[in-house]
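Handout, section B. The chain below has 395 residues.
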Amino acid sequence: MAVKKVRKLKFVGKLVIVIFIAILGLGILCLSSFFFCDKEVKKEKIKKVVEKEKYPKESSFKLFMVGDALIHSAIYEDAELDDGSYDFKPMLELIKPISSSYDIAYYNQETILGGRDLGFSNYPMFNSPDEVGDAFIDAGFNLVSLATNHTMDKGERGVIHSVDYWSNKEDVVWDGQRTSWEERNKTRIYECNGIKYAFFSYTTWTNGLETPSGKEYLNNVYSPEKAKNDIDKVRDKVDIIIVAMHWGTEYSFDVSSSQREIADYLSSLGVGLIIGAHPHVVEPVEYINDGKTFVIYSLGNFISDQVGVERLTGLAMEVTINKVETKDGVSVTVDSPKAELLYTSSSYGGKRNFKVYPYSKLNNSILPNYENYYNEYKGIVTAYYPELTFGLSGS
């Protein structure tokens, strides 16, 4: 009995040792695995942190700009089809390959799209067919200024139709007309290629056609207080603020003291780009406030039937909005401005065949002495910024 008991104890002892060794081995394996896995996890986390903190981070978008769509009766009559509809697209066919190549393309809708029911009309109280907007959208234009001295030409009904038209166009940013205070005061922030921007449209002129009392939202008439209130709401939420200004003196190549005063004030509020309209002729461009703001005082007419080469010549501009993030902060600049002159051509008698040409595509049969005009208007545009490059990257 004693021998059996000893053997049993020896067996149990050996079993305990085996179990202990197995547990110890398993523990060592798990522990090493734990440290190995933990090491790998740490490596992965460090890798992600390094990738996350990789600077500088850069993004950009290219913006194309043209001036006024001033639709006289001769233009919409030329665009009318047999069924009573309108087609303005052929007038823009030489511009579309350029404008559609940019991230954002801007124009000023000078004459209101007030609706067929109010009757289409000419100067001095304009009303233009909706198909004007259709043609510009088809050509890639997706940023539109609507506050002008002709906004109230067809009264409140015209503005309501215009706002309804633009509200139903997807991916088009517009400002300058609204149909309620709620819509007027809403904060709107847009984004392109990771860059957030705000866009405002103001006019300093109304042709004496004031908005009804209490409905000043119909036409965004400029005041320093209004601009400050609008800009204060978005300044810390966006990378750049763009303002379209309907200002200046009609048919003047010179920049007025009022334009300079407004430009300086908007720049002090943090506006990075100011796009000017109303003079119907080109005016200079320049950087102000130590390069913080780029100002285009007047793009002139994009398409019109006004008399005189100076009023049929407009300016196309291109800028690149660059955003650079570093460990020390974010910098957003308006860079690489480029320009091209445009000309609205038409014939006389019968169908006028209105068409907008880049000056680079003109010849003396389309516009006699076009090279002299080119040099003259180029000189005006570059008066304050001689280093401006002519020739668009999108052309």
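Note. Residues 1-54 form one domain. Compare this with the example in section A.
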